[in-house]
Structure formats: C-alpha cells, structure tokens
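[job 4417] fold queue: 2 targets
>>> target A
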Amino acid sequence: MSSRPTLTTTSYAVLGLLAVRPWSSYELTRQMDRGLARFWPRAASKLYEEPKKLASHGLARASRRTAGRRSRTVYTITAAGRRRLAAWMAEPASGPALEAEQLLKVFFAENGSKQDLLNVLAGARRWAQQQTTANAEIARSYVAGEAAFPGRLAHTLLVGRFLADFEDMVARWAHWATGIAEGWPDDISSAVADQPTLHYLAARDRESPERTIVQADTAPAGLSGSPTGQT
C-alpha cells in the first residue's frame, strides 16, 4: 500500500464528508447531490468508486452493517484519512472553473435563431430562480433548527452566501442580456455590439477591488438590471 496515494479533489470531497460522519456509498452520493453538487458536480458512478479507493489506501475503513434483511457497506474515516484531509486543507486551492452549457450556446448564438438565444436566456433565469429557492430552503432549515449538521453552519454559511450571490448574478446577467438581445435584428449574426459594455469591461482592472465590490450591487454601466440599448 502506497504511503502517499494520488487523490483527486473528488476524493477529498468524499473524505471531507466521511469526516462529518460514517456513510454508505448510497448516502454519500445523496449527500453530494444535495450539497456539494451545486459547486462540485460529479457523476454518481464516480462517487460510488471513491469510498472503495479511500479504503484501499487506508484512509477510510469499510464495515458491513445489517438493517433487517438488508446489509450495506458503511465507510468511516481513519486517523490517516483525517491527517491526509488536514494536509490537503493546508495546500493552495485552485480557483473556480465555470462549466455552463447556456454560456456556450450564447457564445455560438449566431448559429441559431434569435428565439433560440432568448430561450437560452429564459432558461438561465429559471435556473437562477430554482437555485435561489433551493438555497433558501436550506437556510430556512437552519433557522428552524431542523438542519442535519447545525454545528457546521459557521463555515457552510460562507459557501451558501457565495452561491446566493452567484445565483443573483446569473439572474441579473440573464435579465440584462435578454434586454440586449431583444433589440437585435432577426439575423443576429449582424447584431451590433453594446459599446458601454465593451468600455466597462475594458476598464474594470483600473478600479480598486474595494470599489468594484461596492459597485457590484449598484449596476455598473452596461451590466445593470436595467439593460442598455443597442448603439
């Protein structure tokens, strides 16, 4: 057995969940889908393999538990697993990597119709609303004292606020982009670029970080909740 096995970020995500409490593979997959999937989505088939991998490296321990006529394998983090998780926490972390099919379709919008583009933007608004509702329901469960792990609220709330701000940003962007696209001709390959947006993007790095944060909620030119017109 290797003393320093190569682990992926998903391996550490599963290890982090095991640090909360023991889980079966099925429970881990459900928990990933309920919580981490909003910022670390992975296929269920991949998640079922991770606990076995961790156990093979001595970072988790597998045990059989019986409930009635059914038995299941439950994974528990080991002392070596906790040390490895702590070491990973101390390492530098990569920045966000955005994956959005809706943005991909907007990027290549000239290959479809104007209505196709507007449908994509409407889908982005619906996505933002659905995510906002899901995030609010989780927050309400903490307020009501019904959340599964209230002792973890302090730091999970930091993630919740990031997700909430991201959802709001997507909603504002989709609203703005819809206003822009609605003013385009039916042949969107001949659409004219919005100049205020271009100049806003070109000057963003000249703003101080503090001022940029303050302005984020005050609708900077070209990217506001009230869309600019085409020039």
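>>> target B
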Amino acid sequence: MKTDLEIQTNVMNELKWEPFLNSSEIGVAVKDGVVTLSGTVNAYSKKISAENAAKRVFGVKAVAEEIEVRLSPSDRKNDSDIAAAIVDALKWQSAVQENRIKVKVENGWVSLDGEVEWEFQREAARNVIINLNGVWAVTNNIRVVPKLTATDIKQKIALALQRNATIDSQKIKVEARGSKVILSGSVRSWVERKDAEQAAWCAPGVSSVENNIELKSEILVPED
C-alpha cells in the first residue's frame, strides 16, 4: 500500500514526465489516496493532461481537479472565430459525423449537443476541441443513442474484457440496464480499473458507465 507522501511524489514525477506540462505550475496534495491538483495553466488541454497523468499513478483512488485556465492575450479569440475553428476541426475528424453535432461558444466556453451511435465518437468530438486556441472549458452534452439490447451490450463488454491482456475479467461483473452499464468487482490498479471502464464505453449503444470496481492491492507472500 502506497503512503500519501509516496503517491504525491509519484504524481509530481508523472507530471514532470509530460513534455506538454510545466510541473511547477501545478500543485499536488494527497489525503487518503485522493489527489487534489491546483494551480494555473494557459491552455485547457494542459488541465486535462494533468488530470490524466495523476490518474495513471498507482495508488491514486480519485482526483479532485481544481486547476484554473487563464488564457494569455495572444491565445484569446472571439467566440465566432472559435466556433468556426471547431466546425472546421470536426469536418476533418473522420470519426465524427459533424452534421449531427451542434456547437455553442460563449466567452470561450464550448458546449456540444447532438446524438452519435458510439461513445468513441462522443469523445472524439471533445478531443478535437480541447487543443484549439481560445477554448478554456468544454461541456459535452452529446448523447449516445443505443441501437442494441441490454443483453447484447453486456455480452459484447464481457468478451472485450476477456480479450484485454491488462484486465482480470474473472474479477469483474458486468450489468446492463438499458444503455447504462454497471461495473463491479475488484482490480489491482487504477489503470486496470480505467481499462475496464474504457472497454465498457467502447461497446456500441452505451450511454453511461457506473464504475463501482474497487482497488485492492495484492499482498505477496514470500516463498519458503
């Protein structure tokens, strides 16, 4: 079991490992395995990168993200320019059906609405936007419209978990209620927990995932 000090050190080192980030801009506090990130960055994508870096660290139970985005004068754009850049970016993203997505920009805050068939399309639309200049926040209201039954979804996710080399699928239970998936059981690391959740999101028709998987570190008993 990692101590809070060890987790804090590892998270700080992980932030330094990200070439896109200036780790001196980000504060890291840890209590009972819960990491709180604070500070100020000049791009929304840096805020997301810091959060993802912290989640990769072994022993992290949850991340409270309090990083503030402050755009430099050179990075500020008017809402019309931002909206136009988003529309063009969506057209170049093959995974996204841009005609099914509506974009609203207000003071650099982007809101996405519409319907898609897959979660990866929903995420692709968001990921295209977070790196654009002038954007300091994104609200993704795009809905995943299910086309499969709950039984079909459950079976596809169970098979996906079995194929994944990083996941012990026997320790994970999958339940589907309509287009909502509920995961339970236990895993050895945050990465394994995240991989299981990602496998569930990749199933067609999934609109939400409730991840109740617990983190349990294995205790190794030395051999005689």
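[job 4417] complete. Note on B: Residues 4-17 form the longest helix (14 residues).
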